[in-house]
Write a structure and sequence with these properties.
Layout: H1 17-36, H2 47-50, H3 56-66, E1 72-80, H4 87-103, E2 120-121, E3 127-135, H5 141-151, E4 160-164, H6 166-177, H7 180-200, H8 207-231, H9 237-268, H10 272-299, H11 307-338, H12 359-370, H13 372-387, H14 408-419, E5 428-432, H15 437-445, E6 450-459, E7 462-469, H16 476-490, E8 498-500, H17 502-536, H18 540-568, H19 577-607, H20 609-636, H21 644-676, H22 702-709
Antiparallel strand pairs: 1-3, 1-4, 2-3, 5-7, 5-8, 6-7
Keywords: Cell membrane, Membrane, Transmembrane, Transmembrane helix
Main location: membrane
InterPro entries: MMPL_dom (IPR004869), Mycobact_MmpL (IPR050545), SSD (IPR000731)
Length: about 700
Amino acid sequence: MSVNAAPPRKAPPGRWVPWLVIGLWMALAAVMVPLSGKLSSVTTDRAVDTLPAGAESTRVAVLEDSLPGGEDNTFVFVYHRAGGVTDADRATVERHYATLAKRYPPKAAAGADEEGPSTQLSADGEAMMFTLDVSTTYGAPEAVVGPLRDAAKERPAGLELDVTGPAAIDGDMDAVFDGIDLQVFLTTVIVVTVLLVLTYRSPVLWFIPLVVVGAAALTSMATVYLLVKGFGIVVNDQNSALLTILVFGVGTDYALLLIARYREALHQHENVRVAMVHALRGAAPAIVASAATVVAGLLCLLAADLNSTSGLGPIGAAGILCALVAMLTLFPAVLVVLGRRIFWPAIPRFSTAVVEKPGLWGRLGTAISRRRWVATLGSFGILGVLAIGLTGNTGALREQDQFLSAPESVTGFTVLRQHFPELGGQPMTVFTRPAYQDRVLDVVQGTPGVAMAVPGQTSGGWADISVFPTDAPDTTAEYDTIERVRTAVHAVSGAQAIVGGPSAENLDTEVTTSRDEKVVIPLVLVVVLIVLGLLLRAIVAPLVLMATVIVSFAAAFGGSVFIFDTIFGFKGVDYSVPLLAFLFLVALGVDYNIFLASRAREETVRLGTREGMLRALSATGGVITSAGLVLAATFAVLTTLPLVMLIEVGFLVAFGVLLDALLVRSVLVPALTLLIGRRIWWPSRLSRPAAEPPTGPQPVAEDEELALQR
């Protein structure tokens, strides 16, 4: 009599899925990684690409570029000697000018002045200067300024030289951005690595989110490169650096949130795949809502007129989406393949009797519950005191003040203004029809604030005039002069005169940014409010959360302005900082409220409003605080760069994120929720069920287990 052997037990289904996901990402990396290295080849910082096409200075730049020989880069050579220049000094300056004018001859044009510009001696006899216009056909400013300085090195002892002018400043600015992408990437990797090691205290676990976020960053760079090639999006060096910061910051945040849920699930489920499914069910909605909020906020930038600002919208959105996809596919797959041992030495064990300890955040929640008014008023008091800083120096930062350490081009402007006060500003360029050149010249020379106007070349149906204002560059007085010159030349009928130049470009940029703030900021508020309403299915809660974020932004901005003014000694706030900081702090600051509020809504269904909020605070307090520290640290990387604008953005956003994570989300939002009660979820009716559901790990039926594995 034979006995039939029991059929061998089949392996649980779904085991191959993580490996398939990893394989697909490896195939994607093979295509995208080579493309990511090409992003720097399509970045541009030219004003003609950054400003809107309708700006008057943009039209001047386009016209200059279209004329024979291309656009000119203007360099100013300022020689100076204490006690007065000597005859040998004068001969040296004349020789330098002759040599450089021969090496970089002006572009040929009909009607051009045969003699060209000459050297000038200052009224005090202590300085000489000449202006050199170098065609862009010889290279970009950063490629030309070095050889120009080298060519003028041989001079008598004691004769100092500063090569300045608009093109020299552009060249020094580009030198700051040279290699910035690699520097930001490496610094961010180091910062995130240190924070992950401190967070998990594991020799292995920190490495997994770092690798996955790195894959997301490279994929996002390749995606942005394809967007630029396909749709002509403007990417400058600043936006490229912000892309890296965004992907690493939000990607690490998503990893921390998912790991926290996964660790909880591993205590409740023996099978790691089942535990990951439960973790994704709990964390994915909040992560997706967070990403949707940031993406929606970023895409609001498409309404901006400034090309560099509007370009940041799709660039940042692409980065956030790449981080989202990577953290919800590749990251879970790697964690499942590696199993529980990835948490060594603190490996979470499956147990049917998990004892929940109140912990720090549980005790904080209890204290807030007992002193709701104290917590609310105290939080608003702190935020209000910080917001007082908005009364400080919020004036626009001049281009010359952008450098942390003033380069030669900036110090040269100071010397130029000291010895040639009549040429204190950057030259304007006026284009007019040739038949009206003399008439426009007379009008310009009679305009208040103009020190000198010099007729230039006639070419391609246009004649140009170089206009030198008396006031310092990028000051209100100089901008007023530019506006007066524009008004005056526009009044010359038939001349079709337009006014541009470096300071005019800065003026148009500031005016456009001011317009963008008025359009984009309200749009961001409305869009983020709608996303919150859809997520929480309520009206009151989204309004409360948005109000706390706005107050937090005002406090962060005010506190930062105080630091910039009194400690860092900055001479203003860059025009682009308020809009960028508002966008990041509202979109990213709402993230932590989303993580807390979505968990509170989930727990309120089971436990009621009070217990639901306290349970949510206890469960999310540690991970959200860690996420806030990581995001703040990644933005703080920008403060290591030698450019004031990036330092201001990095510091302000980092400070604001810390305020959101440590005060607004940890104290103010729970206190307001407990004060308002269940009305905060209006019109949803969330109440504690009659029967308290059991807590702790529950046995899972075999068919459910298999379904989850699939």
